[in-house]
Amino acid sequence: MHRIYPILHQILIEMEKLIKNNDFNALKDLESISKKAKGSTLSDEFYKSIKSESKSICKFLNCNIQQCVMFSVIVHLSLNNDDAQMGSICDYVECSPYFLLSRMKDFEALIEKGYIYKSYRNKRSRKVSSELEVVYTIDDKTINCLIESKIESKRINQKLSPVDFLLEVDLLVEAREDNDEPHTELMRNIKKLTDSNPDCLPVKITKQLLFSPEEEVFAYIICYATIDCDEISLNSLLNKIFDNERKKVRFKRYIMSEQSKLSKYEFVKFVSSNMRTDRDMSMTEKGLDYFLGEEKNIFFNDNAKLEDKEMMYPEKILPKQMYYNASVAQQIDELTSMLKDESYKNIKERLKENNMATSFTVLFHGYPGTGKTETVLQIARETGRAIYMIDVTKFKTCWFGESEKNLKKLFEKYRNKVKNSTIEPILLFNEADAIFSKRKDVNSSNVAQTENAIQNIILQEMETLDGILIATTNLTQNFDEAFERRFLYKICFDKPEIDIALQICKTRFPDVDEQSLKSLIQKYQFTGGQIENIARKYNMTLILKGIKPDIIQLEQYCKEETLHNQQRKSLGFCFN
After folding, report:
1. Which of 248, 233, 241 is nearest to 282 (CA)?
2. How many C-beta atoms lie closer than 10 Å to residue 252's C-beta?
3. Gyration radius of the chain over CA positions
4. Closest CA to 236 of 248, 219, 223
5. CA 309 to CA 315: how far, in whole Å?
6. pTM, 2 dp
7. Can you tell me the distance from the alpha carbon of 574 to that of 328, in angstroms, rounded to the nearest whole number?
8. Host H or E run for residue 362
């Protein structure tokens, strides 16, 4: 009995602790401290009066009593929609600002733990409108933790992977821009992050190569933007990091010079932007290798990813019998032969030897329903090439400047696919008239300027393309001449001639006599797509009613399919 008693006694003690812990209410104790702090001058008597509340809060926050008091006052002011800055805290507790300055380490400790955040705003002064003052705030997450009486401090020494580290830097830069923090504050925060992650690959690289602090930040942000399949504007990044115009101009001059570490080690590539005085930047393959290491494969190795939604692979394309007029059939056969891997590689080598462009650009134009898109699919299947399908609506957005970025990403993604593929894929712009139309007067609207910018990017990319681009279009009357010149091969898909249309009809309507079919073909001059629609209606009637439509019903389907007989203009040239 005497042996068991100490064990029972210990259990009772632990149960009492649990009960006490369950009764703990962080908000109640913080409210009590903040009320007593009002007008207290933070005297010794005040600290004695909060002994019981501060004991629980200090344990809860893992902080000293001074930090506990500052936190309670900041929470009180924030919840009352009052700015918790040095002046308002001094007014609340009725203490000297010099006294608060002597307690700055306590404020910094609360920031380090992630309990409060520091932001900046312009002082309300008529004399100096640009001078900044510090405002201390709490976020919704901290408030929720206080309500539940559960709180987590920030893991200061958390070891980050390269990508996680770059994300943290990006968040710090965005926070500086949102909160109008001084440049010095941003650099101080990033130094803390790098000091706590000395073995992180991006940090090791910039330290080994003796990057300046500002160029370090540039490298980190450009790398993160590239991971996100984006380019970042040089001017935009300068504005995010610097708050001094002279420093901004000086650093811009440096970063674009050969003295820059980013240029010297070929970590960054510059491309022209819509602004004359600006450049878009992205990280090179070499830079990604240095800064990401093995993590690069997660984001940039196609083999490590699931299949792209935009990609159509040759083994998944169903074979289909195609019918062409004689001239088109010959051109398609020649094109298919040239795109077979061995022939294609040989052609590219010969072109290089003669210092000629190796881009392979093809335009399929003509009537809708004549098999242009399906022809691309069948060529891809026969040549073993994947198709990178382009949905024009995905990069034509309402935001000025976003469309151009989306388009650049698209071509960059295709270049990566070409680089990482054994057999180069086909870049397919289906219904290309949506973006290849005649350029507009730039003075007419911002939309016209954006569309022209999109077209200029495509024209430039077509000039330097190292791959295969096929575009299809029905509407050639609005086609820009600059695009016509960029296409090496142009194949016109006209309506099928009578004997070809008859072959299509005989496969689709095997039970209808040849003379009746020929009469319908001569009367309506349908395309292959229209014949396909009529055949579907014919078979649906047969399936649903169990009755084979007669020739009268078949002609009725033909009349329904003929909405108009509009003549379309064709480009009128093709390769022989």
Report:
1. 233
2. 18
3. 35
4. 248
5. 15
6. 0.52
7. 9
8. strand 360-366
DSSP state of 479: B
Q: CB neighbours of 234 closer than 8 A, spacing ≥ 6?
A: 252, 255, 256, 270, 278, 279, 280, 281
- For residue 441, pLDDT beyond 50: yes
Residue 153 near residue 163, CB atoms below 8 Å: no
pLDDT band at 298 (very low <50, low <70, confident <90, very high): confident
Q: Which amino acid appears at position 352 of this protein?
A: K
CB-based contact 233:401 (threshold 8 Å): no
Number of residues assigned to the chain: 576
**369 CB-near residues (< 8 Å, 6+ apart):** 527, 528, 529, 530, 532
> Is residue 507 within 8 Å of residue 321, measured between CB atoms?
yes
| Distance, CA of 366 to CA of 384 (rounded, Å) | 26
Which residues are registered as beta bridge partners of 489? 362
For residue 294, the surrounding DSSP H or E stretch is none
Asked if 490 and 501 count as a contact pair (C-beta separation under 8 A), the reply is no
Say if residue 199's pLDDT is above 80. Answer: yes
H/E stretch holding 217? helix 213-227
Identify the bridge partners of residue 272 per DSSP, sorted by sequence position. Answer: 279
Q: Please list, residue by residue across 92-103, b when 16 or more beta carbons sit within 10 angstroms of its beta carbon and e when fewer do.
A: bbebeeeebeeb
DSSP 118: E
- Only one residue has tokens 């692979």, namely 313
397 pLDDT tier (thresholds 50, 70, 90) = low
**pLDDT tens-digit readout, 12-31:** 454 445 444 556 688 888 88
User: To the nearest whole number, what is the mean pLDDT of the chain?
Assistant: 81
CB-based burial label for 244 (10 Å; 0-12, 13-18, 19+): exposed
